[in-house]
Amino acid sequence: MILYGIKSFRSLRVHWTLHELNIPYVIEPIESRTGQTSTSDYTKIHLGQKIPYLQDGKLGISESAAICIYLAEKYGNGKLIPITDINKRARFFQICFYAMTELDAHTLYIIAKHGGSLVKYYKRSDAAVEVAVSEFNKQILVAERWLKNPNDYIMGEVFTVADILFCTCLMSAYRLAHQFPLEIPEKFIAYTENLENRKAFQLASIANQTVAL
Ligand SMILES: N[C@@H](CCC(=O)N[C@@H](CS)C(=O)NCC(=O)O)C(=O)O
Fold it and tell me: If I label 113, which of 53, 82, 105, 132 is the partner at 20 to 30 A Cα–Cα?
């Protein structure tokens, strides 16, 4: 098992999932925006020139959420993903897609790329940032309703990959909130702290090294 990618919240998701499942793996310390993702060697591995990327035997797979879900389905033995109850699976996928689209891709990444620390690589766009901030502030309320109690997990009593995806979005949001008016509901502070106390998270953070974004 080889994981390409360090120092990003997206690679952190995969390190975290691997540690939750106690899977031994080799780290290829490819960093984003250093030129390491655009070498010809790495482009042969992943045409999209992005991290994270996982090689598990013959299977090579990109997309942080897809990788984490694949690992849970293949190696979880019932951990990290609901496997039998179709309604729970529906809710699980809803939260995963919500985190990856409404939070990660279409609001937080836009803010970072077009107004935050990544502006030097992409173009500044105040209009895009303004819309993304307002969309984030609306969409985060959906998750606030899902989390009944700050000590719960996002699906209730059981920790899943949905927490890994959602919580890493929150971590990115807390960083951006220093610079932008993101309204992150109070109850997510305790939720995030609880997850940061997990041994697997701490080991994953060390493996991922400091997040550059
Ligand atoms: N949807 C993808 C996004 C991956 C992504 O955008 N990765 C960034 C770093 S966080 C990257 O590798 N960018 C390429 C580069 O800047 O070199 C995922 O969740 O895995």
Answer: 53
